[in-house]
Amino acid sequence: MRYLRILAICLLAIAAVEMKAQFGPQKDMDDRYATELIKPGTVAPDFKMRTPDGKKFQFSKWAKGKTVVLDFWASWCPDCRKDAPEIVRLYNTYHQQGVEFLGISMDTDVEAWKNAISKYGIEYPQVSELKKFKETDIAKAYGVKWIPSMVVIDSDGKVALSTVLPYKLDKYLKEKTTGAYTPSQKGERVSIDGHHGKLQAIIQKPDLKTGQKCPMVVFCHGFGGKKEGPLFELICDTLQAHGIASIRFDFNGHGESEGEFKDMTVPNEIEDARKVVEYVRDMSFVSDVAIVGHSQGGVVAAMTAGKMSEEEGQPAFKAVALMAPAAVLREDAIRGNTMGRMYDPFNPGEYVELYGGLKLGAEYIRTAFSLPIYETAALYQGPALVIHGNADRVVPYTYGERFHKIWPDSEFVIQEYYDHSFTQNVYRTTDIVARFLIKQLK
Hints:
Elements: H1 2-23, H2 30-33, E1 48-50, E2 56-58, H3 59-63, E3 67-73, H4 78-94, E4 99-105, H5 110-119, E5 126-128, H6 137-142, E6 149-153, E7 159-163, H7 166-178, E8 188-194, E9 197-204, E10 214-220, H8 230-241, E11 245-249, H9 266-281, E12 286-294, H10 296-312, E13 319-323, H11 329-335, E14 337-338, E15 341-342, E16 351-353, E17 359-361, H12 362-369, H13 373-377, E18 384-389, H14 397-406, E19 410-415, H15 426-441
Parallel strand pairs: 3-4, 4-5, 10-11, 10-12, 12-13, 13-18, 18-19
Antiparallel strand pairs: 1-2, 3-6, 6-7, 8-9, 9-11, 14-15, 16-17
Helix pairs in contact: 4-7, 8-15, 9-10, 11-12
């Protein structure tokens, strides 16, 4: 008996460590490869090099008064070749907004350098010393020990960002050119009858002429989440600007909606989602409807799409988008480990207390045991997007990949190094989802 008690204590301790690892600050590649990169606030060292055509180039004359991204790379570098399409995308995105890019090659073979520039469609200026990486003056001046590396130099001539991660560069440039996320103040608040009382929702819609209709997107948040926050608001704002309406709501027992969290289950969240869908379908200005879900909300969105499609004999939604769908919740319940909290799945008691005082009801665990997630979702066969981070420790990306496999008309996007909430660069994630919805609905 004493042994079992000690074992239980050890398992709980391990679960607590896992919980912290899943949701606490994560180390990234900069902690290993960017430790000697030139630091923000440093005056950028000047340098002289030559272009691929042999012309002289002086950085200080060319860069004066500009925001410049220095892209350290080489044609022989596998990671540089992997990241090249993304760096080109960033150039195409931010050059239009006044940001300059300069490629600094660590090549020694000028023809290999030129061929790589052509192969990847690189249009921004390129310079090199045509020396071995470790022998270049530029690597010493900027502390470059790893390529690819990226350094942003602001218009005042000082370093603003040093990183080996393209998503950090993207996030910095996004906030510099368009401003950082601020909570949305847009939308009309409405109340909808749900499974366990009133659901509180926010509708955003474009300006419409009398009798004009537009598509509507329904957003389903995750376990313990709410309708507010950048993950949904950034998408909703973009959709509104493109003539598409949206509704985001709190599930029963969440946010401003009625009900208790311990009474929440995936099946009754599906009923909540259905009631919201029926509500917006009855609105005179709504034409087509799409549905989006994050985490557990992704499971709810997928199963709602399947159930309603089976009933209607055709795809019930114009499009479905899942963000890190938490289909692992069934296995979590069977293992008796939800959000790092361990319990006896066959005798959990009335509820299991989770982080922040949340109480996971026994009915949630019982219904999760036999939840036919993929079987139900497969009944929807319309256009879909599944996006997942490969550094997601809450829901491994393979759970998202399986939705892609059961939906022939789907896209699957893996975001390298991204976690469960896409905190590495929420702007990139929301942009991908918004663009998919716009493509399907307009």
